């Protein structure tokens, strides 16, 4: 079946302050889990979900991301000359994977503002947003699962996950009615509530499918915390005009934009790696500190 969602937006213009000093001169999205940068995991998730037009919202110091998805002429010639054909085809595959268009967010005025920056490129159609901070391991790509929900309801769909009540202060938390297995209809959303004020323990994760009306909602949203235009505020406004759904996807999510989450992801992806997993497991078993 042909999905209605064809475009995906990747906001990658943030400063990544939680990961300083690693992110002083190179993008957080280029941090590598085993041997692939975070951004490649999310781009692959979108491509495997059937998305064919990718839009990256970039900023200064983000050139490495553009180079990563481009042809690397000298490197390819060098690998060819050395007969390293497996590496060559892997490198070429990355450049061929998708057509990516880049728009600049000139000032990092928040995630909501970054999404709004993509308006001219997205136009009047539903689109996905994926954040490189959230890496999801699943049998069916998480975005594909959400696209199926979008096909059913023709509405905005947010990815959600149950989190411990002690952690509600790190997320956008929804108040919602369950309408089907794993599907909720949004009543309200609260940004980073303390545990005793959180309306639930269902947290919004970095995958979204939006109807184009989110742009109008964001345009009407004034800057909130820290002078930034918050995506959560835009979602709240959108939900006042049209139904918004949340979907508890099947899969495990890693908070790779956070140092501890990144270390956890590194260990698990290392252990699952075909080439290195067994040796890495042995190494960890021997490890005594
Ligand atoms: P984060 O909240 O993780 O912000 O943004 P950040 O600045 O990257 O990281 P910290 O919190 O300071 O450590 C979530 C996503 O939104 C993008 C980021 O690149 C990240 O992928 N973003 C954020 C933008 O593109 N523009 C912005 O103005 C803010």
Q: What is the compact description of this entry?
A:
The chain is α/β, with parallel strands linked by helices. It has helices spanning 38-48, 63-68, 73-81, 85-96, 111-117, 119-122, 142-153, 213-219, 231-241, 259-272, 277-286; strands spanning 7-11, 32-33, 36-37, 53-58, 99-104, 127-130, 134-137, 156-162, 172-180, 183-191, 202-210, 244-248, 252-255.
Notable traits:
single chain, 289 residues, alpha/beta, Spore Coat Polysaccharide Biosynthesis Protein SpsA, Chain A, 11 helices, 36% helix, binds uridine 5'-triphosphate
C-alpha termini separation: 53 Å
Mean pLDDT: 94
Count of folded domains? 1
Silhouette: globular
Helix content range of the residues, please?
25-40%
Biggest sheet: strand arrangement? 5-4-1-6-11-8-12-10-9
The level-1 CATH class: Alpha Beta
CATH superfamily: Spore Coat Polysaccharide Biosynthesis Protein SpsA, Chain A
- Ligands bound here? uridine 5'-triphosphate
Instruction: State the low-pLDDT regions, or none.
Output: none
CATH topology title: Spore Coat Polysaccharide Biosynthesis Protein SpsA, Chain A
Count of helices? Answer: 11
Query: H/E order of the elements?
Result: EEEHEHHHEHHEEHEEEEHHEEHH
Determine Rg (CA atoms, Å): 19 Å
Characterize the biggest β-sheet: 9 strands, mixed
């Amino acid at each position: 079946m042909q999905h209605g969602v064809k475009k995906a937006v990747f906001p990658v213009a943030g400063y990544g302050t939680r990961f300083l000093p690693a992110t002083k001169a190179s993008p957080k999205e280029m941090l590598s889990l085993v041997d692939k940068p975070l951004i490649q995991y999310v781009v692959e998730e979108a491509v495997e979900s059937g998305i064919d037009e990718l839009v990256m919202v970039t900023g200064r110091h983000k050139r490495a991301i553009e180079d990563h998805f481009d042809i690397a002429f000298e490197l390819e010639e060098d690998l060819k000359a050395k007969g390293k054909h497996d590496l060559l085809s892997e490198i070429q595959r990355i450049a061929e994977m998708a057509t990516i268009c880049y728009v600049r967010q000139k000032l990092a005025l928040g995630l909501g503002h970054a999404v709004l920056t993509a308006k001219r490129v997205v136009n009047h159609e539903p689109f996905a947003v994926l954040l490189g901070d959230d890496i999801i391991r699943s049998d069916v790509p998480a975005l594909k699962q959400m696209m199926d929900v979008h096909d059913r309801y023709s509405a905005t769909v947010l990815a959600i996950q149950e989190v411990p009540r002690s952690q509600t202060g790190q997320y956008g938390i929804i108040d919602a009615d369950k309408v089907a297995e794993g599907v909720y209809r949004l009543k309200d959303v609260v940004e980073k509530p303390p545990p005793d004020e959180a309306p639930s323990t269902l947290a919004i994760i970095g995958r979204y499918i939006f109807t184009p009306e989110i742009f109008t909602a964001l345009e009407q949203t004034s800057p909130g915390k820290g002078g930034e235009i918050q995506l959560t505020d835009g979602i709240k406004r959108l939900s006042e005009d049209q139904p918004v759904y949340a979907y508890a996807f099947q899969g495990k999510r890693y908070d790779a934009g956070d140092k501890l989450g990144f270390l956890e992801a590194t260990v698990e992806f290392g252990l699952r790696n075909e080439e290195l997993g067994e040796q890495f497991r042995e190494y960890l078993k021997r490890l005594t500190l």
